[in-house]
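Quick illustration for those who missed Monday's session on complexes.
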Amino acid sequence: MAINRRKFAQGVTIVAFMAGIPGAGYLAFGRAHEKDYLRPPGARDEREFLSLCIKCGQCVQVCPYYAVFLLDIDEGTATGTPVIRPEIRGCYLCDLLPCVLACPTTALNHDVSTAEQVRMGVAILTDREGCLAYQKKPVTSEMIDALIAHGVRSEQEKELAEKLREYSGKNCSLCRDFCPYPERDAAITLNDDEAPEFHEQCVGCAVCGELCPTQVIEMMPRKTYQEIYRKETGYEP
Ligand code: SF4
Ligand code: SF4
Ligand code: SF4
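Prediction with iron/sulfur cluster bound:
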């Protein structure tokens, strides 16, 4: 009898998970599948986020930059939950954060309504010598074409593509110039036109990572500036 009850309970949990009941999948599989995903703005801490997200895709639907993707089937409990993929598109921190407003369960916390409140992670430079600004090399038209190939569907993407075209043949400052944080210098600077330096207000939106032609910028999801630049590396800017 005890075995039957357990089997029944397991069956209910699996059915509930398949039906998309918030939190059921997380309860079934625990933390085993937790990874540091780069979540959209306003995402609550990972455990709470997984328990609240119903995988409805509303955040995907409203994003004018097509920056939000639902995780594939092989991602355990996180399957179907939204992420930002910097290699495809960063988050441009739109006014009023429409993805957050669209979230019906507040897995994306509605208390987060401005870019300054966003905390997705923090950016790092992985290879200073690979940076075009450091090398004093220009951005090529092929590099710009590759960036524009990320997508030109909405008005916002068309405007972005137009601005990117202006950089063809010029010295690279894409990571700094397109950083969408309102007080950009508090997030990123290019000192003496050399490689970028990240600062305390970097929110990890991944725009710099998306647009870096030589892919020398990576995001550290869910990390804070203090964790990366002080505790983990001892680096003091
Ligand atoms: S803030 Fe804008 S660009 Fe970023 S994920 Fe939300 S809707 Fe997309
Ligand atoms: S430096 Fe700017 S563009 Fe890069 S992750 Fe930080 S806030 Fe986003
Ligand atoms: S986008 Fe920034 S980090 Fe990348 S090559 Fe250009 S200046 Fe260097």
